[in-house]
Specification:
- By secondary structure, the chain is of the alpha+beta class.
- It folds into three domains: 9-53 and 71-101, no CATH class; 118-172; 173-223.
- The chain has helices at residues 85-102, 119-125, 127-138, 142-147, 153-171, 174-191, 193-196, 202-222, and strands at residues 9-10, 19-20, 28-30, 37-41, 44-45, 79-80.
- A hairpin with a 7-residue loop joins strand 2 (19-20) and strand 3.
- Helix 3 (127-138) packs antiparallel against helix 5 (153-171) and helix 5 (153-171) runs antiparallel to helix 8 (202-222).
- It is elongated.
């Protein structure tokens, strides 16, 4: 087998996933012309046909021997093995690690809809803003009449205030729980020797952690 006359390709310059230098297995390489795997014989890619030499809609074999076809220009391409199988393995692992790092492992979940506040909470929290909004509409605002209420700055501001008030009202049920935990923590610290000495015990840490979690959730809801 004679080479194709092209300059040799260095194995170190090829992508590691385009080579196979595993021990106890035939050495393989991807042809640079047709992107198909072929064996390496005497550091050359074994001769093979071009992918378009035999159309898929025709029979490739008419008898015992294959029909004639155009030879792929990448046949007998020389590859200089300037890396060891160990070096190739390290490069392959590094490439796989980099590719895996690009794919995020974090699952993106659809946010759960927040529970709507009780009707009594909505009425009390938004009463002032609703009254101002009703007075604004009774005054027959020129901008609302011309461009619609959705374009009036006063209406937009009042509706934003109502939305913020509803969020605060939705978080209100967590406040009594926080107060109960705070009372329980104070009572616990009054009788717990480790907590008095500044080294919280397991129960003290759990109570403090629950209080911190509730406070963070309340801040996130009202933000």
């Amino acid at each position: 087998m004679r080479h194709n006359g092209r300059a040799p390709l260095k194995a170190s310059q090829l992508r590691p996933e385009h080579l196979s230098l595993r021990e106890n297995e035939p050495r393989l390489a991807v042809c640079p012309d047709c992107d198909t795997w072929h064996r390496l014989k005497r550091s050359m890619i074994t001769p093979h046909r071009a992918p378009d030499a035999n159309p898929k809609d025709e029979r490739r074999y008419f008898g015992d021997r294959p029909a004639g076809g155009r030879r792929c220009p990448g046949s007998a391409q020389r590859i200089t093995m300037d890396i060891t199988p160990e070096e190739w393995t390290e490069r392959l692992l590094a490439a796989e690690t980099t590719a895996a790092g690009r794919r995020t492992a974090r699952q993106i979940r659809k946010p759960r809809p927040q529970a709507a506040p009780a009707t009594a909470q909505m009425t009390a929290a938004t009463r002032a803003a609703r009254e101002q909004l009703a007075e604004h509409f009774q005054d027959k605002c020129d901008r609302c009449r011309r461009f619609g209420a959705s374009h009036c700055a006063v209406v937009i501001e009042l509706r934003q205030r109502m939305s913020r008030a509803e969020k605060i009202a939705a978080a209100a049920p967590a406040v009594p729980i926080y107060g109960q935990l705070r009372t329980a923590l104070r009572e616990h610290r009054a009788v717990c020797t480790p907590c008095k000495d500044g080294t919280p015990c397991g129960a003290g840490r759990k109570l403090a952690a629950r209080m911190t979690s509730i406070a963070r959730k309340q801040v996130a809801r009202t933000a």
